[in-house]
Amino acid sequence: MNNLVKITKDNDVVIITIDNPPVNALSPGVPEGIGAAIDEINHDPTVKAAVVIGAGRTFVAGADIKEFGKMTSGGPRRSLLPLLLKIEDSAKPVVMAIHGQAFGGGLELAMAGHYRVASPSAQVGQPEVKLGIIPGAGGTQRLPRLVGVAKAVEMCAEGKPISARDAAALGLIDRLIDGDLLAGAVTFACEIAAKPAPKTRERADKQGTAAENAVIFSAARDTARKKQRGLIAPLAAIDAVEASTKLPFDQGCEAEAKLFTECLFSDQSKALIHVFFGERKVAKIPDIPKETPVLPINRVAVVGSGTMGGGIAMVFANASIPVLLKEVDEAALEQGLGKIKKNYATSVQRGRITQTFADECLHIITPVLSYDAFSDVDMVVEAVFEGMALKKAVFGDLDRVCRKGAILASNTSTLDIDEIASATSRPESVIGTHFFSPANVMRLLEIVRGTKSSKEVIATCMQLSKKLGKIGVLVGNCRGFVGNRMFGPYRREAQFLIEEGSDAQSVDQALVDFGNAMGPMATGDLAGLDVGWRIRKEYRHLEKPGIRQPFAEDRLCEMGRYGQKTLRGWYLYDENRRPTPDPEVIALVRQWSAEAGIPQRQISSAEIVDRCIYALVNEGARILEEGYALRAVDIDIIYINGYGFPAHRGGPMWYADTMGLQKVYERICDFHRQHGELWAPAPLLKRLAQSGKTFADFDKESQAAPEIALRA
Ligand code: 3HC
User: Fold this and answer.
1) Chain centroid to CA 70
2) Is the shortest distance between the CB of 62 and ligand 1 below 6 Å?
3) Domain boundaries, the chain
4) Is the confidence at residue 708, as pLDDT, over 70?
5) What tens digit of pLDDT does each residue of 93-106 get?
6) How far apart are CA 194 and CA 192, in angstroms?
7) Check whether domain 5-127+137-200 has CATH 3.90.190.20, yes or no
8) What CATH superfamily is the domain 300-475?
9) Which of the listed residues 23, 57, 633 should we mutate to test ligand 1's pocket, taking the one with most ligand atoms within 8 A of CB?
10) Which of 57, 288, 303, 530 is the most exposed place for a label (fewest CB within 10 A)?
């Protein structure tokens, strides 16, 4: 056929193999190859049936996502619909043999076949909404005909894959094949060869009644508006599935195509596609090639069983890596373990994991009070209280007790990794692994490169992050690293806005409406206002005199208002930690602001968003220029996975590109004039804006110069 699609014969069954590594995406050439193979089987009288299978690790992961960018920038529009009709209309039955994944266009291809068989470990799904689009090759029309309307709506609107076993129970897969998939598929093909080939598009037995469907669609829309707040694709997917229940197949496909195009050309889709590739790009470190040897991590230890330490121990246990959990005394250890047990029990109760899995995890977490068994571990993560003296003392101990070559990692969120490493005789083995709270839930892992961290240690941590189900992003060693360094100016502006006349609720609401998971004041209350307060006190000597500093939060802390844990912070909390605005705080801030001579005014939501988000962008640009982040997209991935930034806005740097850097720069210049030095525009932002470039251009240009390595 062509080099992407191969054809072989097993007696009178033709095997059509899609071979487009790594994931057999339907890139240009693949649909053409499949189409030619279908023509060939129909012209060859000796052929009774065909099997379509994927070479390598998977069936077909979908349309080639790289092609979408070409289409939206004026390239030709490619549709799989004619190919799928050709397969469905084939006079010879076509059996789709699925292993790995049949996602997106891959599942649409499979549904155009007359039968589907699968390995039990396979997964199928329509994940397009995660890219801000909807299935565009008849998925919203064929899936309801195979699995029923309710399940199809769920799969297309939420985008979650299902297992082959579940798919078989739903009727989407005709047979599960243990062992050799191809041999099983050929046997199946021989069995059905003489029977009439069923066409999915002609099925109507699962379409449901209008009344039943109305209830399904209304509930799905409510769920989408609540759980996928602000996203357009899930609602479009529901509309498209609804079309399948009201229109003949061809017209349903037309309705789907129109909705698909609207989504594809949206800013949301462009942002989500940027995030898809970004999440994979962060794994690529220019000066650490893929072949860099990695160290085996089979046994680890965590020092400190507080909120972070306990969560980190769970992360390792969840990945089946046995973990020692060390504390200084029995009481602290018992408290830490109690919290871990409670977290597992809650997950079991909510149906997220089974009791057996929870038991297995707990079984491999070994509580200890001494360093005795540390000589056996491959890696230690220190998660003690955030203070340099204590961390250095712990690393001195670890240097003494751990074997040479073991990785010594600190979960510090702000402190200097090189100074921590200086407490050891092996700085090459020291690295930062900054987990985000709750560690067992949040996907981000900032991996902090010390000046002397070895390439093997970095490569090992990057690879380990994937095994732990995290997205590891390598960052340089500056105060607060990337995420928290940017979070400082963001929360600073939020406080300034309150001190200038806004209030916690208005600030939070504006940013939640923007799409953030939480507003900055509610986030502060959740994390504990005292955490930042203590850090600010430690670094007060570094503040430049004469530069405006926010004061309201420090004063709240002085009053013992630490946030949720004291049931008072920016908000008042009831015993279920439900917040209400606190008139006392509002009155106090007004009084403090009057004393400080800060003029009060009405502040719009648009200004709140610009001040807070552009503060992120400006600091992000500095970080990028100083070399503490490798690429702008790395910053985006950090913010989306660690700070609840809306993925459909692509991250702060992508958002700035979308707004236009010239506009962002001018707004920042306005803020500079109004609010002083803290708003001095980052030189990189100024340069890019003035030369009509974007942060994405910056990433492309730095890729072209691979000698640019991350500054340690
Ligand atoms: N198109 C182009 N490239 C793709 C791709 C796709 N559909 N799916 C994966 N890739 C690339 C990745 O970018 C990565 O490239 P890299 O090595 O250069 O970084 C490589 O394939 C391997 O991918 P992963 O690192 O993600 O490998 P995993 O084994 O961890 O995961 C996977 C494999 C589960 C298939 C995962 O890649 C995935 O979920 N892919 C996306 C699936 C998807 O969204 N499909 C729908 C596409 S849209 C569509 O089909 C529209 C249709 O309705 C018309």
Assistant:
1) 24
2) yes
3) 5-127+137-200, 300-475, 483-703
4) no
5) 999 999 999 999 99
6) 6
7) no
8) NAD(P)-binding Rossmann-like Domain (3.40.50.720)
9) 23
10) 57
